[in-house]
Amino acid sequence: MKKLIAASAIALTAQGLAVAEMNSPRAERHVLSLNDVDITALIDDVSIITGYTFILHPDVRRTKVTVMSQAPMDTAEVFQVFLSTLRVHGFAAVPAGKGVYRIVPEQMAIGDASSRNTGPNAFITQVFKLNNFSAVEAAQMVKPLVDAQGQVVANARSNTLVLVDYSSNMPRLREIVQGLDENDRTKVQTVELRNVPAREIEAILNDLLTDRDDNPNNRFEVSAASSSNSIVLKGDEATVARAMRVARELDETDPVRDSLRVIELRNSNAEDIVPILERLADTMAEQSAPGEAQVSTATIAHHQPTNSLVISASPDTILAMERVVEALDKRRAQVLVEAIIVEMSDDTARSLGVQFLLSGTGESSIPFLSTNFSREAPNLLELAGALAPASTFGGANPFTQGAVDSLLSLQPAIGAGGRSGDTLFGAILTAVEADENSKVLSKPFNMTLDNGTSELLVGQQIPIATGESLGSDNSNPFRTVTRQDVGIKLNVTPRISADDTIHLDIFQEVSSVSDVLSAGIDDFATNLRQITTTVLADNGEIIVLGGLIEQASGTRSSKVPVAGDIPVLGNLFKSETNTVVRTNLMVFIRPTIVRDQEDARRVTSRNYRYLRAEELLREGNSDGPSEIDGFISEVLDLDVEQTPSLRGRGE
Description:
This protein is α+β, with helices and mostly antiparallel strands. It is built from 16 helices and 26 strands.
């Protein structure tokens, strides 16, 4: 059993110490937004946030950085991002006292390694005293697993091994070194691969050779190092030899045959992925020979029926493309967008008018005196004409049907009339006062993919005349007509951020036919109200988009010239209508993220329960099955009584 002489050295970024200091009552949240700025600007911001003092190496000042955070962070998270940024640009933070750090290049930090910190972004040094294994051989075996910025030093005289690497990788190195020094029966061998990714060989050997023997002394282990594309084999000599043989045989795959790969996609569209991979192949070709014009030799195509990618390229290029495809071919979340569109109107109308008639019924008679306002119902002339005998017209009375229609559209009125000998007389007093409060509620909802566009239209298409023309001899008139959508439109494009905030691009429209502008042709006036906006909403949060308030008032007066202008008495010769209309349109939106089957079942159950309750209330049946229950049972083949997600309580 090996003895560990020195367990650790300094952690150059002192992350653990810093985080401990930051777990204080300070709970401020901060957002970093720096784009291609000097690193000193980032250091100044972090110094203000954390209260730490930083001493900069001269090389640090010539570095540009970009740091963008979408969500607010606490002080400890800001310092963690700062340490990671330093590591990306080849620097590290070395503790130099309480609240004081030196920002130096990583190589200088490695030389100062000691035992203060073991954070994932920290360099640590461990010294191993080997009793049963050569330190020189151990150094050769573990070197491929050490980061390029780390160091491996073996001292043959004292048989000690010194490892310098990031603390996140040190547990694996420690386990391998301990295994080497456990006993002389354990053999460790490093195999460098040329054609096949190390991770694939690791998975194959683990499936073939691990856990085949219950004897702990014969345990076999495989570790892969992607950076050097090599594997480390550890176990008894026979098992290691067999694993080496299998690994080398797998690595001797025919390069031509291995340069072709078919990748079947589960969630993404293969046609959309092809341009991304083509740009990636061009970039890799340029990086392989900087300064020279390079044309990628990779060929990428898609097979639409199976939604697959067909890639022909070098093994390295295929490996990189597989990683990109794996990252892109994720199941996209969906968003259920529910809207409530409320239209409230307050209409008030007042109408007052008088119509009267005095006429003879003889063949040569003409009206002696009459007033008639065609927009008011009933129409006095049509009623009086219907009372005249049929002999007056030499046949059927043409006023009979008009009188019936006028009575069907009757407004509140008081009237009297009759016939005395050859004289017809009649009068109608119309007095109307109407108040109307209406609430029109629409609840459209639709499901769409993240970054997808949902379009919903509930309404109709009406014909609108766009032009009219005649032939050369003013004959054969021709009219062009287009169809226009009228109703409720809701178009939404959601985008989900990392913290489940939903960015919504919304277009909402409510339109209706107002009146016919021209009789006999397809020419309509339409009422139109629109909202186009971009909002942010949390998952399941209800937000209001806005209110569109419209108010219109008008007065319509019909009168007999001259007579209608006589004071007081003129009221008998005119009809007057006053109207006031106020309309308020409000739109409420609730987006709900649907990531998996459980979320889909939950939102489906919620809407099912709403429909079922509405139908039961309409039918006056609170216990028995509804029509929607029959649909679920017969069409969807689900037992409503045995489906808790459908019959359970709503949220």
